[in-house]
Amino acid sequence: MIQMNNVVKKYPNGVVAANGISIDIKKGEFVYVVGPSGAGKSTFIKLMYREEKPTSGDVVIAGMNLSNLKNRQVPQLRRQLGVVFQDFKLLPRLNVYENVAFALEVIEENPKDIRKRVMEVLDLVGLKHKVRMFPNELSGGEQQRVSIARSIVNMPKVVIADEPTGNLDPETSWEIMNIFEEINSRGTTIVMATHNREIVNTIRKRVIAIEGGLIVRDVYGGDYGYEG
Question: What band does 52 get if pLDDT is binned at 50, 70 and 90?
Answer without folding.
Answer: very high
